[in-house]
Amino acid sequence: MGNAANKEANGSGTENKPTVVFVLGGPGSGKGTQCANIVKQYGYTHLSAGDLLRAEISSGSENGNMIQNMIKEGKIVPSEVTVKLLQKAMQESGNDKFLIDGFPRNEENRAAFENVTKIEPKFVLFFDCHEEEMERRLLNRNQGREDDNIETIRKRFKVFLESSLPVVEYYEAKGKVRKIEAVKPVEEVFEAVKAIFDPEREKVAA
Ligand code: ADP
Ligand code: C5P
Ligand code: MG
Fold it and tell me: What angle do CA 126, 129, 131 make, to 5 degrees?
């Protein structure tokens, strides 16, 4: 079956693009934790750009060394690499609803994803958390991550302010940002997350 026929078979003509929610927030703001909760309740597939990059290092890929060095320095890996990993994971998932966590991290990420996939996010979930709390969480995370040390954490905070917040502002100007106060216990943060996702689900059902 050709691509066009495939689209017909899906019953939605050319409008069968997947639903994407970008999940943004500083390092340690709780993105991964809340995405796990959202998956359980709302049927999304969770794709963490950082997790995909770490898996790429573990797989022994030719880009592994470059990615490892960039993560250690808190730098943002070239979009070509990250967008390819995201696209592959989306194709392999079999789902059509994605939480894309920790991406886009800069303007280059944002433009590359849009150009390659032609997908606009449904909305952007933004976890707002001050640095002192994020630093405390990262230093207690205990997942053996090479970037959860105070030197790299400071670099990651700087990159977040300089490169990632402008992406949040870009979507803010489009009315797409759903801001969550992230300096609360996990359960309370999830209550705020549900208040965003429940009405969205009702819209689909209506
Ligand atoms: P991110 O994916 O945004 O970097 P994580 O979800 O990995 O953040 O959370 C960082 C650390 O903080 C983890 O150890 C996690 O268990 C903890 N954590 C997440 N959310 C909260 C919260 N609301 N309050 C306290 N600790 C949290
Ligand atoms: O989101 P997470 O904290 O897992 O990201 C860890 C690191 O992975 C980032 O500090 C960065 O070096 C890299 N990364 C990236 N591009 C992304 C997401 C993560 O380069 N879009
Ligand atoms: Mg994470």
Answer: 135
CA atoms within 13 A on the CB side of 150: 2
Collect all residues with Cβ–Cβ distance below 8 Å to 19 and sequence separation of at least 6.
96, 97, 98, 122
What's the predicted TM-score (pTM) here? 0.93
Q: Mind listing the pLDDT tens digit for each residue in 120-139? A: 999 999 999 999 999 999 99
Residue 16: count other Cβ atoms within 10 Å of its Cβ: 13
Report the distance separating Cα 125 and Cα 31, nearest Å: 9
CATH architecture of 16-43+98-201: 3-Layer(aba) Sandwich (3.40)
- 140-193 pLDDT, tens digit per residue, is 999 999 999 999 999 999 999 999 999 999 999 999 999 999 999 999 999 999
- For the chain, what are the domain ranges? 16-43+98-201
DSSP 123-143: EEEEEE--HHHHHHHHHT--S
Taking the CA of 36 as reference, the closest ligand is 1
pLDDT at 61: 95
Distance 33 CA to ligand 3 centre (A): 8
Atom 26 (ligand 1) nearest CA: 137
